[in-house]
Amino acid sequence: MQSIPLIDLQGNIDSQHPTADAVAKVLxxxxxxxxFAYICGHNVDPAVRVSAFEASRRFHASDLALKQSLAVNxxxxxxxxxxxxxIRTSSVAKVTRPNMSESLMLMHELAADDPALLAGEPIQxxxxxxxxxxxxxxxxxxxxxxxxxxxxxxxxxxxxxxxMPDTALDSFFEKPTTFLRLLHYPPQAPQEDxxxxxxxxxxxxxxxxxxxxxxxxxxxxxxxxxxIEAPPIPNAYVLNVGDMLSRWTNGRLVSTPHRVINRSGxxxxxxxxxxxxxxxxxxxxxxxxxxxxxxPQFPPVVYGDYLxxxxxxxxxxxxxx
Length: 321
Fold this sequence. Notes:
Elements: E1 6-8, H1 20-31, E2 36-40, H2 46-60, H3 64-68, E3 78-80, E4 102-107, H4 115-118, H5 136-161, E5 177-185, E6 198-201, E7 207-212, E8 218-220, E9 228-229, E10 237-241, H6 243-248, E11 258-260, E12 268-276, E13 282-283, E14 301-302, H7 303-314, H8 316-320
Parallel strand pairs: 1-2
Antiparallel strand pairs: 2-10, 3-4, 4-5, 5-12, 6-11, 7-10, 7-12, 8-9, 8-11, 13-14
Keywords: Ethylene biosynthesis, Iron, Metal-binding, Oxidoreductase
GO molecular function, one term: metal ion binding
Pfam families: 2OG-FeII_Oxy, DIOX_N
């Protein structure tokens, strides 16, 4: 498969709906071959998505001093400045130059009395919101609520595609680890291939749901193939498998390398939403993915330990802490 398939949810995000079984089969085919799919026919309101993009643009248009007042902190929340992330953990390229992007990282919200927050557990803390931007937080929170619901449906489809009950993985996402990254990529020179908007990498976690503007620039490298374009499709999401889901499924679902090269001549904005398990989840190859011919390829790992190792190696701010 050398192109990314388009999967239509037909307006449904209920795993008990009659259409869900057929969608799960098509999704499994896509994620076990190329590891990517376009998702359309979802229930994310286009107006809510547009408002979130507009909020992101307003943030990135703010004075640098204002953005830096929300500098990313030990909770991995806040402003990640231009060229301060180098993907040293990439398994698909030797990356020595930082990504040409800046972003605002927003993670799962925690109540003030949340036990994980009070215990000082890794990356459990409050988000940093740009208080100078009226309406920013409501627009983003409305978007998160809708894309999160879509992500949880995708998780159920993944379970069904593996011939497991639709709710088999739900317990891992009762208090999930989530990231919404509001990314801005400046234009780069037409022939610049060395320093990229995002260097070749695979994602850390379970699934990513990417909303991208109409600039293009996302490229995917299927197994055994060369880089192919993943052009924007209006109102569709680009879904991909992360490393943790590939481990979880004993390699049956493919975590595929991808990169961003912004040759549009203008600014590029995207909003990846990462839906991952609770930090304390012990991830080991699912029994449904193991048999005599397919013994476990990966040892068990605690998701939070796996995540922190990657954050500590890839982000400059973690080294300065």
